[in-house]
């Protein structure tokens, strides 16, 4: 008696766990995963079954979402061709092109120097919280960019150098790092949004800054700017908006089938990769200006202080404002 009750219970539980999966005409599978032709039960001929499979109809796999019953999903072939073809080729050319353009800018314009020379006096540009926000976003992005580009290009560029086994080990570790760094990046993104969004709204200095080419093209031109100039605002909103899209599509890939079926995931994957490359292109320029491209900028995100001459040349309105509000901020 108790055995019968147990058997009924197991049957009911089993049905519940299997969920309302669709039993398509193509295939049926036992709960142990063996896939058998539905023709046996539905009197559908074998050619009918295989035609249905080729057209992407979903079969049934015990305990799995219906979408996983698709044996042949033809869009997968299109996805693979776009990913390994147009997307990878365009991404490669753009990355090489932007790197060369930055190098040419460096050769032609040279390092942007403090024209009045360093004053020796500093002013606090970013407090600790702002620097933590910057490096959470920047550090994780660098890990994401390197490990992501390895996924996109590594097989062609790195594998021939390192050999299959070392490359596969590095890529496996890189994929784990990529998954973890994604969460750190999201945390950094939220942090810099709350810290800096207000300072990145359009203000009365922006139009003048655009007309003056941001002072980037000609020596001696310094259009005034508040805490952030129009170029930085563009980069900030790009990081926030494109970063949010790259993050949400990344989460969709990290938790498969939670936000869509396999086709939606293929589309998300292409969007994720294309937008991530767009971000890398922007950030190449940002890293250039933050390091070798401009004298006096990098300490803003390391010690937090910048030379007062640098601040006056690039953010005159901000310096005035800080000095008015907190005379002690200038040391
Ligand atoms: C080696 C890498 C990096 C360096 C050396 C660097 C350097 C800098 C510097 C010097 C500033 C301050 C500019 C100023 O005081 O006006 C800054 C600001 C900023 N950084 Fe970075 N950065 C790096 C990577 C990144 C990455 C990867 C991101 C985002 C994914 C990022 C996002 C930002 C944002 C949003 C700001 C504020 C707005 C702006 O100045 O453009 N940074 N960074």
Automatic annotation (TrEMBL):
<dbReference type="InterPro" id="IPR051817">
    <property type="entry name" value="FDH_cytochrome_b556_subunit"/>
</dbReference>
<feature type="domain" description="Cytochrome b561 bacterial/Ni-hydrogenase">
    <location>
        <begin position="125"/>
        <end position="295"/>
    </location>
</feature>
<keyword id="KW-0812">Transmembrane</keyword>
<dbReference type="GO" id="GO:0009061">
    <property type="term" value="P:anaerobic respiration"/>
</dbReference>
<dbReference type="GO" id="GO:0008863">
    <property type="term" value="F:formate dehydrogenase (NAD+) activity"/>
</dbReference>
<keyword id="KW-0472">Membrane</keyword>
<keyword id="KW-0813">Transport</keyword>
<dbReference type="GO" id="GO:0036397">
    <property type="term" value="F:formate dehydrogenase (quinone) activity"/>
</dbReference>
<feature type="transmembrane region" description="Helical">
    <location>
        <begin position="236"/>
        <end position="255"/>
    </location>
</feature>
<keyword id="KW-0249">Electron transport</keyword>
<keyword id="KW-1003">Cell membrane</keyword>
<keyword id="KW-0349">Heme</keyword>
<dbReference type="GO" id="GO:0015944">
    <property type="term" value="P:formate oxidation"/>
</dbReference>
<dbReference type="Pfam" id="PF01292">
    <property type="entry name" value="Ni_hydr_CYTB"/>
</dbReference>
<feature type="transmembrane region" description="Helical">
    <location>
        <begin position="267"/>
        <end position="289"/>
    </location>
</feature>
<dbReference type="InterPro" id="IPR011577">
    <property type="entry name" value="Cyt_b561_bac/Ni-Hgenase"/>
</dbReference>
<dbReference type="GO" id="GO:0005886">
    <property type="term" value="C:plasma membrane"/>
</dbReference>
<comment type="similarity">
    <text>Belongs to the formate dehydrogenase gamma subunit family.</text>
</comment>
<feature type="transmembrane region" description="Helical">
    <location>
        <begin position="135"/>
        <end position="156"/>
    </location>
</feature>
<keyword id="KW-0479">Metal-binding</keyword>
<keyword id="KW-1133">Transmembrane helix</keyword>
<feature type="transmembrane region" description="Helical">
    <location>
        <begin position="87"/>
        <end position="108"/>
    </location>
</feature>
<keyword id="KW-0408">Iron</keyword>
<dbReference type="GO" id="GO:0009326">
    <property type="term" value="C:formate dehydrogenase complex"/>
</dbReference>
<dbReference type="GO" id="GO:0009055">
    <property type="term" value="F:electron transfer activity"/>
</dbReference>
<dbReference type="InterPro" id="IPR006471">
    <property type="entry name" value="Formate_DH_gsu"/>
</dbReference>
<dbReference type="GO" id="GO:0046872">
    <property type="term" value="F:metal ion binding"/>
</dbReference>
<feature type="transmembrane region" description="Helical">
    <location>
        <begin position="176"/>
        <end position="197"/>
    </location>
</feature>
<dbReference type="GO" id="GO:0022904">
    <property type="term" value="P:respiratory electron transport chain"/>
</dbReference>
<protein>
    <submittedName>
        <fullName>Cytochrome b subunit of formate dehydrogenase</fullName>
    </submittedName>
</protein>
<dbReference type="InterPro" id="IPR016174">
    <property type="entry name" value="Di-haem_cyt_TM"/>
</dbReference>
């Amino acid at each position: 008696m108790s055995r019968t009750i147990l058997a009924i219970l197991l049957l009911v539980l089993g049905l519940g766990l299997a969920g309302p999966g669709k039993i398509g005409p193509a295939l049926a599978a036992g709960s142990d995963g063996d896939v058998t032709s539905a023709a046996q039960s539905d009197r559908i001929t074998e050619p009918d079954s295989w035609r249905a499979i080729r057209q992407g109809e979903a079969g049934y796999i015990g305990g799995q979402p219906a979408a996983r019953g698709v044996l042949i999903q033809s869009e997968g072939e299109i996805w693979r061709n776009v990913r390994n073809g147009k997307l990878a080729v365009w991404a490669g050319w753009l990355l090489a092109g932007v790197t060369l353009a930055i190098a040419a800018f460096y050769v032609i314009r040279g390092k942007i120097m403090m024209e009045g020379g360093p004053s020796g006096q500093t002013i606090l540009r970013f407090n600790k919280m702002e620097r933590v926000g910057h490096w959470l976003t920047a550090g994780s992005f660098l890990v994401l960019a390197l490990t992501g580009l390895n996924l996109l290009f590594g097989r062609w560029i790195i594998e021939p150098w390192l050999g299959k086994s070392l490359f596969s080990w590095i890529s496996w570790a890189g994929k784990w790092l990529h998954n973890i760094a994604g969460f750190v990046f999201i945390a950094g993104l939220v942090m810099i949004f709350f810290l800096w969004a207000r300072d990145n709204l359009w203000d009365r200095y922006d139009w003048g800054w655009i007309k003056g080419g941001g002072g980037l093209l000609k020596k001696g031109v310094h259009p005034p700017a508040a805490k952030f100039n129009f170029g930085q605002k563009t980069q900030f909103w790009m990081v926030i908006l494109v970063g949010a899209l790259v993050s949400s599509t990344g989460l969709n890939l990290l938790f498969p089938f939670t936000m869509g079926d396999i086709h939606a995931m293929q589309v998300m994957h292409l969007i994720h990769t294309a937008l991530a490359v767009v971000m890398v292109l922007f950030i190449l320029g940002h890293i250039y200006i933050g390091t070798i491209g401009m004298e006096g900028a990098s300490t803003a995100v390391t010690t937090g202080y910048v030379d007062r001459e640098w601040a006056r040349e690039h953010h005159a309105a901000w310096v005035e404002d800080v000095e008015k509000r907190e005379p002690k901020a200038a040391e």
